[in-house]
Amino acid sequence: MIPISDTIPIRNKPIIIYWLIGINIAIFLWQLQLEFSGELGYFINTWGLVPDQITTAITNAIYFNPAAWVVVFWRSASCFLAMFLHGSFSQILGNLLFLWVFGKTVENLIGHRLFLGLYLSGGIITAITQIILAPSLTIPLIGANGAIAAILGAYVFKFPRKKIYTIFPLLILYIPVEMPAYFYLMWWFIQQFFYGIGSLHIPPSGVNPLSLGHWAQLLGLLIGGGIMAFHQSSRM
Fold first, then answer.
1. Please, are residues 140 and 45 in contact by the beta-carbon 8 Å criterion?
2. What local confidence, expressed as pLDDT, does residue 216 receive?
3. Angle in degrees, 0-180, between the axes of helices 89-110 and 112-133, rounded to the nearest 10
4. Is CB count within 10 Å lower at the N or C end of the chain?
5. Percentage of residues in the chain with pLDDT exceeding 70?
């Protein structure tokens, strides 16, 4: 099931989405080059979100070495950087597709700056939640799943019954249908389980380092809905 577009006209160019798509594609191409050269594992484990590294750094800073707060700050930057890394072709394609279909309408509605804040806050707060849920996890968590969940939450809050042009691939046939926006709340979480398809091989574990905290993305949906509710109330 592939969302294609909605029926809402766009008056302004989605500039932030253009930049986000370009940055994500450029970094993923860089990841492919690193995989071929055998450097991808080090890169992902350095810049991906590894909860155990952050919680260990915080523990050291509190109980042993106050100077270690510098390490905490450096490690915490991964909460931001990890949302621009992806572990498979299916993950980046799925995220960018949802970003385009649902994001362009949200950006047009709330403006460029607030949309960027929505995207970044969804990704960062979801990352922090994943650290809380699995503080000793040593597998790097990467991807913009939390940010996309926030965008989907904002869209569905505002347009729950808006029809989305959708294509159902059936063998070599593609059947076009219209689906209500709220249906994609369920489909979004189903899609997460297929993100391992076409995954990059990232040592040392060889395990696809996609987010294990799918439930944390529920928070992303709530963030998106909350920001949209705030935007509506501020315009009244």
1. yes
2. 66
3. 130
4. C
5. 79
